[in-house]
Each structure stands twice: as structure tokens, then as C-alpha cells.
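Re: the 171-residue chain
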Amino acid sequence: MKIKITARQMNVRESLSELIERKLSKLDKFFGSDTVADVKCSCKHGSQIIEITILYNGTLFRSEEGSDTFQTALDRSLDALERQIRKNKTRLERRLRESAFADYIPDDDGEEGEFVIHKKSFEMKPMSAEEAIMQMNLLGHRFFIYLDGDENKICLVYKRDDGEYGLIAPA
């Protein structure tokens, strides 16, 4: 796995880079060698924050954790990623490496009255509503926009307050 480490408003020490590379290497059993892990380190309000994003075969795996030390935040973030993978093991087996299961944001500096818009873009591939729900759960979001493979329309799935899922599709 290739690891890209970036820092926001700080410098990453060599020891932290080595720790990140060593700890992320345990995820190699799930992903291919061409996979890129994007790791962002930042400090906000006295908390050390690590955000890990991995894109593999069109599936996003993301975790963001904060703690008093980067090591603790990294451990929590890796645990969250492994939980996501294990929770969706049967759905992900066909997307991850064959042997994967063999052994088991910018600061808000706007003034009052201003709107700060954070823009995100991502590659859309056709998928079913079930795949979109799985992707939404992997990301830990409450909604997910996707391109419906059958109707070739942009749709939205969301998690309702009662725990069920909803689908919004154009007419």
C-alpha cells in the first residue's frame, strides 16, 4: 500500500511518518499493493486529529479520530477501519483482495453572516441502492448520493431516525 501523508498547519515528524507507515502496513492483507492511503494530520482545539481515506476498487474507506496524542488517534482510526471492513465482510469479499479474509476539513474562519461552503467531489460509478447503503455505512455518513445502475439517474439514500433507510430518486 502506498501512503500519502499530509499535514495541516503543522509539520509531520519523521517518527510519526514511520509510525503511520508501520501501523497502516497491517491493512495490506485487505488491499492490493497499488492502493493509496491518504493520511491527513492536524491539530485543532488542543486535539491531535488523524483522518485516513482509502479508495480501493471504487469503495471508499474513511476514518477520522482525534485524541491527545497522534498515536492514540492513529490506533483508534485503524480500529474503526478494521471494524468497517469486518462488519461488511461478506459484501466486501468480492471487492477486496482474494486473501483478505483468509485468516480472519479546512477550518471555519468565516465571519458571522457569511456562508462557508465546503465542496467535495468524487467519482460516481453505477451501483444499486444496496451498494450505496453499504458505502454510506462504510463512510459513517447519514446520506449518500450515487448513480443508479439500472435507471442511469442520480439518486440519494439516507438513514432515517427510526433506523430504516430511505431513497430519493428523480421522477
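Residues 105-113 have pLDDT under 50 and may be disordered.
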